[in-house]
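pinned: reference chain
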Amino acid sequence: MTNSVYSINKNINKSIEFKGLKAQYIWYLGGGLVCLLILFAILYLCGFVLLVCLPVTVILGSVLFMHIYRLSRTYGEHGMMKKIAKRSIPAVIKNNSLVQLKQQLLHAQTI
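pinned: its C-alpha coordinates
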Protein backbone atom coordinates (compact mmCIF):
# COMPACT_ATOMS: atom_id res chain seq x y z
CA MET A 1 0.00 0.00 0.00
CA THR A 2 1.16 3.49 -0.75
CA ASN A 3 0.55 6.51 1.41
CA SER A 4 -1.39 9.23 -0.35
CA VAL A 5 -1.25 12.86 0.58
CA TYR A 6 -4.60 14.62 0.45
CA SER A 7 -4.92 18.36 0.58
CA ILE A 8 -7.33 19.68 3.19
CA ASN A 9 -9.58 22.60 2.43
CA LYS A 10 -9.04 24.95 5.37
CA ASN A 11 -11.44 27.65 4.13
CA ILE A 12 -14.53 25.59 4.80
CA ASN A 13 -16.30 28.07 7.11
CA LYS A 14 -15.18 31.28 5.43
CA SER A 15 -17.68 33.40 3.57
CA ILE A 16 -17.38 33.73 -0.17
CA GLU A 17 -15.64 36.76 -1.62
CA PHE A 18 -15.50 37.91 -5.22
CA LYS A 19 -13.26 40.81 -6.22
CA GLY A 20 -13.72 42.56 -2.88
CA LEU A 21 -17.45 41.87 -2.52
CA LYS A 22 -18.30 39.80 0.52
CA ALA A 23 -21.16 37.41 1.23
CA GLN A 24 -24.64 38.79 0.45
CA TYR A 25 -23.35 41.80 -1.51
CA ILE A 26 -22.57 39.50 -4.44
CA TRP A 27 -26.27 38.64 -4.60
CA TYR A 28 -27.28 42.30 -4.29
CA LEU A 29 -25.03 43.21 -7.21
CA GLY A 30 -26.34 40.33 -9.30
CA GLY A 31 -29.95 41.30 -8.60
CA GLY A 32 -29.22 44.92 -9.45
CA LEU A 33 -27.63 43.93 -12.75
CA VAL A 34 -30.66 41.80 -13.66
CA CYS A 35 -32.92 44.77 -12.87
CA LEU A 36 -30.75 47.00 -15.10
CA LEU A 37 -31.02 44.47 -17.92
CA ILE A 38 -34.81 44.45 -17.59
CA LEU A 39 -34.87 48.27 -17.46
CA PHE A 40 -32.79 48.44 -20.65
CA ALA A 41 -35.14 46.00 -22.41
CA ILE A 42 -38.24 47.95 -21.32
CA LEU A 43 -36.76 51.28 -22.44
CA TYR A 44 -35.71 49.82 -25.79
CA LEU A 45 -39.09 48.16 -26.38
CA CYS A 46 -40.91 51.39 -25.49
CA GLY A 47 -39.21 53.04 -28.44
CA PHE A 48 -36.39 54.99 -26.84
CA VAL A 49 -33.36 55.49 -29.03
CA LEU A 50 -30.36 53.30 -28.27
CA LEU A 51 -28.29 56.44 -27.64
CA VAL A 52 -30.61 57.20 -24.72
CA CYS A 53 -31.03 53.65 -23.35
CA LEU A 54 -27.35 52.82 -23.27
CA PRO A 55 -26.05 55.88 -21.33
CA VAL A 56 -28.92 55.62 -18.82
CA THR A 57 -28.10 51.95 -18.20
CA VAL A 58 -24.35 52.57 -17.97
CA ILE A 59 -24.78 55.47 -15.52
CA LEU A 60 -27.20 53.52 -13.32
CA GLY A 61 -24.88 50.49 -13.47
CA SER A 62 -21.93 52.61 -12.35
CA VAL A 63 -23.95 54.01 -9.46
CA LEU A 64 -25.03 50.48 -8.52
CA PHE A 65 -21.44 49.19 -8.51
CA MET A 66 -20.17 52.12 -6.43
CA HIS A 67 -23.00 51.78 -3.92
CA ILE A 68 -22.68 48.01 -3.48
CA TYR A 69 -18.88 48.18 -3.11
CA ARG A 70 -19.23 50.98 -0.55
CA LEU A 71 -21.75 48.91 1.44
CA SER A 72 -19.41 45.92 1.34
CA ARG A 73 -16.42 47.98 2.54
CA THR A 74 -18.41 49.83 5.21
CA TYR A 75 -20.40 47.02 6.78
CA GLY A 76 -18.47 43.87 5.89
CA GLU A 77 -19.97 40.43 5.98
CA HIS A 78 -22.58 40.79 8.74
CA GLY A 79 -22.47 44.50 9.58
CA MET A 80 -25.50 45.62 7.56
CA MET A 81 -27.68 42.88 9.06
CA LYS A 82 -26.51 43.94 12.52
CA LYS A 83 -27.37 47.58 11.76
CA ILE A 84 -30.87 46.61 10.57
CA ALA A 85 -31.36 44.43 13.66
CA LYS A 86 -30.16 47.25 15.92
CA ARG A 87 -32.94 49.49 14.62
CA SER A 88 -35.57 47.04 15.85
CA ILE A 89 -34.33 47.18 19.46
CA PRO A 90 -36.71 49.37 21.48
CA ALA A 91 -35.27 52.46 23.17
CA VAL A 92 -37.47 52.04 26.23
CA ILE A 93 -39.10 48.96 27.71
CA LYS A 94 -42.33 49.62 29.55
CA ASN A 95 -43.64 47.20 32.12
CA ASN A 96 -47.38 47.82 32.17
CA SER A 97 -47.99 45.20 34.85
CA LEU A 98 -46.10 47.36 37.38
CA VAL A 99 -48.12 50.43 36.39
CA GLN A 100 -51.37 48.50 36.80
CA LEU A 101 -50.18 47.12 40.15
CA LYS A 102 -49.42 50.66 41.37
CA GLN A 103 -52.84 51.83 40.29
CA GLN A 104 -54.52 48.93 42.06
CA LEU A 105 -52.55 49.60 45.25
CA LEU A 106 -53.41 53.30 45.18
CA HIS A 107 -57.06 52.47 44.54
CA ALA A 108 -57.05 49.95 47.43
CA GLN A 109 -55.55 52.53 49.81
CA THR A 110 -58.24 55.10 49.00
CA ILE A 111 -61.06 52.67 49.76
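why pinned: The helical segments are 24-45, 50-75, 79-87, 96-110. The chain has a mean pLDDT of 82.
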